[in-house]
Amino acid sequence: MASGIKDKVVILGMGCSKFGERWDSSPSDLMVEAFEECIKDAGVERNQIEAAWFGAGIDAFNVGASAMPLAIALRLNYIPVTKVENMCATGTEAFRGAVYAVASGACDIALALGVEKLKDTGYGGLPQRSRGLENDMYWPNLSAPGAFAQLATGYRAKHNHNKEDLKRAMAHVSVKSHANGVKNPKAHLQREITSDQALNAPYIAEPIGLFDCCGVSDGSACAIVTTPEIAKTLGKENLVSVKALQLAVSNGTESSHDSWDGSYLKTTRIASQRAYDEAGIRKPKEEITMTEVHDCFSITELVTMEDLQLAEEGKGVNDVLDGNFDADGKTPCQIDGGLKCFGHPIGASGLRMIYENYLQLNGRAGARQLSNPKLGLNHNLGGFPHQNICSISIVGPYD
Amino acid sequence: MVGITAYGAYIPRARLNKKTIAEANAWFDSSLNSLAKGERAMCNWDEDSITMAVEAATNCLVSQKDAKINALYLASTTFPFTDRQNSVVVSEALNLNRTIRTMDVGGSQRAGTSSLISLLESNAESDTLLVASEHRRTKAGSRSEMLWGDAAASVLIGSKDVVAECLAIETYASDFVDHYRGEDSDFDYDWEERWIRDEGYMKAIPHTVNKLLTATDVNIGDIKHFIVPSDQPRTPGVLAKRLGIDSEMVVDNQIQNIGVAGAAQPLLLLVKALELASPGEHILLVGFGQGCDAILFKATDAIVNYKPVIGVDAAIKNRREETNYNKFLSFNNLLEKDIGKRGEVDKQTFLSGYNRRKDLLTGFIGGKCRECGTVQIPREKYCVNPECNMLDSQDEYYFSDKKGRVATWTADRLTFDWSPPAYFGMVEFDGGGKIMMDFTEVEDGKIDTGSILSVHFRVRQFDAVRGFKKYFWKAVIED
């Protein structure tokens, strides 16, 4: 039986660019910015990197196809570089590639880097793009908020929440993340908002209003990983180790079979349970100390708390309103500001989440440093509630 | 006995208040004020002569599910495609058989009546279906804009369970150019109304009708329903008087609630007359355009028991007032709107891919697993039931006639739509199967989880660069 990834790979260093409307920066500029921080943190030379995984989501508006843009931007030394794309879960896919390569023994030191340049489209929101030749002929021309609004209506119908209570909880999700983002100099949005602002904002896709949506930004994040043994020989202490790395991909059941009612993310439930098993976590509520989840929309974060077993099914509204996921709550969520304040440069987001956990575990999170972080969970979701990809990674101190 | 065995109608729900047309245009032509009474039917942005034809035919065929249809004629002067047989698209959307004779008939306001004559005279043993559908194109601020409307009607022709028997047919062909539309024109060009009346209607129609009646033992006084399609409000009455028909027998052209629907108008009024007719009553249907068609029907005893699924009366009542003239202009491509960058995404249809998915796209056909009974759409190679997942185990399963309910939904204001917000959501069908699909005709506040819906064939996208239209099915919330 497979032994899993737990404690086989550690993070040697990480880097993250400033996220935002980086009008004057190319994807290469962003990659270099993240990489320079990362490689200094790792304390290795570029030519020690033996393989790389490159995450980029939307070819047409970003760097184009293949792994070459990364190799060229970083002048990598003709090493194997693999381009990965798995919708909005792309960043974690790059990380998974690098971690698995090290764990397999195929290489000692590997790089994962994600980048996305979303602000070159000429309009707000994620780029309008093809979903594939055949899908384009019959899929609704849905926007991301439109797709996740379905989750809100499905969740509300299943649990009989009234519209106002759900909307208040959604507003609290955003207010909390904005409060966190203020303390993060790398966040795109660094200002507080009020609940009234969130509640009264115009609808983007009913019931999702403007402040229920995450930002749209440019950014890059990266990680260099190795084995615990090599990290120690390099003089690294307080190692941050990969405890679990799981992925679940919809097979069409949610979208075409009546066993799914639209009120939750099936992939999140499956991937997180696998991740808990892999990491040896029996009581997630008690053992997970912080989460970075895929808060593309406030409703996604709320429902994800239930799917991760950090709130009881149907009770997430109460837990959110009680402040359980606030910075001073039981399990702080999006302590860095989340997608809400960082925006969501698709290829980078998964790595940006891990970056925050990594900083927290190293005690380097500045004004937003949590007092005693142990296990950090990252939830990176691609696609739509009815068809999606969910990546779960859990990191913690190497014992 | 050959005649009409079933009928149905379709009128777009949106009815443009004519005052809004006059208010926008009377500064230029104050005579429009005199026409500003009532409303006219207008296609939604996703409707055209093909989609309305599918609706009208569906409304006709639902009562005749066992009909063995061997021909479908589509009459229109506003075919979405000049070279791609429109009637075949309609036939496939109706999931009719593949040996069917299909034909597009156009080129004249008589297209509907001439097709009807052809089918009545064909002596076919099976049933034949005639659909007439018109999405009329008019210049902004024209009288036509005030007087015309969009609609479709359908009749089934056969010899079993005939509700109106055809007694006589007469035709008069004459190149009387009251109006015309050249191959490079979007709009009609017409001549003076009074001349058309005096030299056109008042000469061709009496000539044809009198000739028709002399071949039968029916007297002019026996006509109980006199149908003269015309956008001249008073002309049918004047004609009736000239012919000796009581003016009460004139079937109203519905100018104040639908508008005159071009080549579909004769069939639309025939459907209306059939809804009113009692056994033994005579219906005289006239078509006018480069001459005249005249067809005499007699209602049979069977008409008492025939109830159309949706006839003209029900279609008129199924309405939504539209008071935004700009919307009408936009939907009819009469003004160049800023549609935003999201609307600029290329919409090319990859015809080979389209052809592979035609069953789904046009027929709305999914699958039913022979192993586990699971109903599913789209139909993929493996059954979707996680407990089954059998390969190639699904028979065709038709969703186009199924009702369903809304599971999840939204009103999306970010994505591009010709009439925002874009409503879409997860639809669950009675009898099984679900799919994420677009909604159309949604009225604000009238959709929620659990709402009952039916599905309708509509335009999905335009490829303006290459002149192509994509169609697919959309959900409509039932009242």
Secondary structure layout plus pairing:
The complex is a heterodimer of chains A (399) and B (479).
Chain A lengths: L9 E7 L10 H16 L8 E5 L12 H7 L6 E4 L5 H15 L5 E7 L27 H16 L3 H19 L13 H6 L2 E3 L2 E2 L9 E8 L1 H6 L6 E10 L3 H4 L9 H14 L4 H4 E5 L5 H10 L8 H6 L16 H5 L3 H16 L13 E10 L2 E11 L2
Parallel strand pairs in A: 2-3, 2-4, 9-10
Antiparallel strand pairs in A: 1-7, 1-8, 4-7, 5-6, 8-11, 10-11
Helix pairs in contact in A: 1-2, 3-14, 5-11
Chain B lengths: L2 E8 L3 E4 H8 L13 E3 L7 H13 L7 E7 L10 H8 L7 E5 L5 H10 L6 E8 L8 H5 L3 E8 L5 E10 L5 E2 L8 E2 L2 H22 L8 E5 L7 H9 L21 H12 L5 E7 L2 E9 L12 H6 L2 E3 L2 H7 L19 H6 L1 H4 L3 E5 L5 E2 L17 E5 L5 E9 L9 E8 L4 E5 L13 E12 L4 E10 L2
Helix pairs in contact in B: 2-3, 6-7
Detailed description of the structure:
- The complex is a heterodimer of chains A (about 400) and B (about 475).
- With about 400 residues, chain A is an alpha/beta fold.
- Chain A is about 35% helix and about 20% strand.
- The longest helix of chain A has 19 residues, at about 165-180.
- The radius of gyration of chain A is 19 Å and the shape is globular.
- The model of chain A has no long low-confidence stretch (mean pLDDT about 95).
- Chain B is α+β, with helices and mostly antiparallel strands.
- Chain B has three domains: about 5-330, Peroxisomal Thiolase, Chain A, domain 1 (3-Layer(aba) Sandwich), CATH 3.40.47.10; about 340-360 and about 400-475; about 365-400.
- Chain B contains twelve helices and 22 strands.
- The two termini of chain B are about 40 Å apart.
- The model of chain B has no long low-confidence stretch (mean pLDDT about 95).
- In chain B, the strands form five sheets. Chain B has a nine-stranded mixed beta sheet with strand order 5-4-6-7-1-8-13-12-11, with helices on both faces.
